[in-house]
């Protein structure tokens, strides 16, 4: 068996899907994407597949990962690693289908029967965020994540910190103490303000604070962690096990949030999860993407003790109304109940992609860019 062809599909709202084909008729799906850099990643996937994979045996997942990573003298980074990630998803999908087994069985077997998931909640005012949080709770979610703030200056007055505190306080008051609540700083907060904001949110028993500082300033996390009992998380903008290594060795975070579409696919996510287990650090993979990426995350998570929860933004509570789950032959393929997704049992990634629908949706112009924010004085702000 060898790889014979591939296709790429840009589909709404901001996803890029890869289809790999083999000589014996097996097909694998993956999701290679950097949100906001779709065209760039598409070119990287084309180059990697055409130069290194066509005509090769798809079952050599470990060898192909290393070849795609190491064949370039200049390696790593969001574009190349995201291209590699989607290819890796598709190779594992083929491998699972070849052996008629879910990917997690090929990774050592499942260690759990269901995985808790968390859902993002939004809103401009504390009242709006609290209202949506209650709605999500009533839909069955037991863990939620919200943003702490919009644009946030390097030096803010106490009122700005108080505004963020009130947002979180309103949601915690609405939900009570039985539900998990994570807060995302989204890398918007400077080192100088992060400690003040973390301290202000300490009383609310948060599941974690995500990206308290930008990845460029990760050296600040260790000192920040020493001043709080709130678990700190980061990782969605890290691109390999090598990026995560210093976070583990200096004890700066309690939760890693690698993204299976950026960190090198299932192969590398599995290794990050194993590293985290050695340091008693939990893993909650980042995934605001399509069901292909979600399925790839689950395959790694169901084979890992360090994976404790999975992000999703697919509307699992109402599959028939979900924009994302419409890309599957059966939108009900993920069995969601009481805040958990049950272990998938199908081969490969465990999903059946509706290829006709993918082709239909790919006919439009899909090229999403994230908003560009500014401070009041015209300086660029972090989105």
Automatic annotation (TrEMBL):
The keyword Lyase applies. Keywords: Lyase, Magnesium, Metal-binding. Residues 126-231 form the Mandelate racemase/muconate lactonizing enzyme C-terminal domain. GO terms for biological process: amino acid catabolic process; D-galactonate catabolic process. GO terms for molecular function: galactonate dehydratase activity; metal ion binding. The keyword Signal does not apply. This is Galactonate dehydratase. It comes from Haloferax marisrubri.
């Amino acid at each position: 068996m060898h790889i014979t062809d591939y296709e790429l599909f840009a589909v709404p709202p901001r996803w890029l899907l890869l289809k790999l084909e083999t000589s014996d008729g097996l097909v694998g799906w993956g999701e290679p994407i950097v949100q906001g850099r779709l065209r760039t990643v598409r070119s990287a996937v084309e180059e990697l597949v055409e130069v290194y994979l066509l005509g090769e045996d798809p079952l050599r997942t470990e060898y192909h990962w290393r070849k795609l990573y190491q064949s370039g003298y200049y390696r790593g980074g969001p574009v190349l690693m995201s291209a590699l990630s989607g290819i890796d998803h598709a190779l594992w999908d083929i491998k699972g289908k070849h052996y008629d087994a879910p990917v997690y069985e090929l990774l050592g077997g499942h260690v759990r029967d269901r995985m808790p998931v968390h859902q993002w909640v939004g809103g401009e005012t504390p009242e709006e965020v609290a209202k949506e949080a209650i709605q999500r709770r009533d839909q069955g979610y037991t863990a939620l994540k919200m943003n702490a703030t919009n644009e946030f200056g390097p030096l803010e007055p106490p009122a700005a910190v108080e505004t963020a505190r009130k947002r979180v306080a309103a949601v915690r008051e609405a939900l009570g103490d039985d539900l998990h609540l994570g807060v995302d700083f989204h890398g918007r907060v400077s080192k100088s303000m992060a400690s003040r904001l973390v301290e202000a949110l300490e009383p609310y028993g948060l599941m974690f604070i995500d990206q308290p500082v930008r990845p460029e300033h990760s050296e600040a996390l260790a000192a920040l962690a020493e001043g709080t009992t709130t678990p700190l998380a980061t990782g969605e903008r890290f691109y390999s096990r090598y990026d995560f290594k210093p976070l583990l060795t200096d004890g700066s975070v309690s939760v890693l949030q690698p993204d299976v579409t950026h960190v090198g696919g299932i192969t590398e996510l599995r290794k990050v999860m194993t590293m985290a287990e050695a340091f008693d650090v939990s893993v909650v993979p980042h995934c605001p993407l399509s069901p292909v990426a979600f399925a790839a995350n689950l395959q790694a998570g169901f084979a890992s003790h360090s994976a404790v929860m999975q992000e999703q933004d697919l509307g699992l509570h109402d599959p028939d109304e979900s924009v994302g789950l419409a890309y599957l032959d059966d939108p009900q393929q993920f069995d969601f109940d009481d805040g958990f997704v049950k272990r998938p049992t199908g081969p490969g990634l465990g999903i059946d992609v509706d290829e006709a629908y993918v082709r239909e949706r790919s006919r439009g112009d899909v090229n999403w860019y994230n908003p560009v924010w500014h401070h009041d004085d015209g300086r660029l702000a972090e989105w």
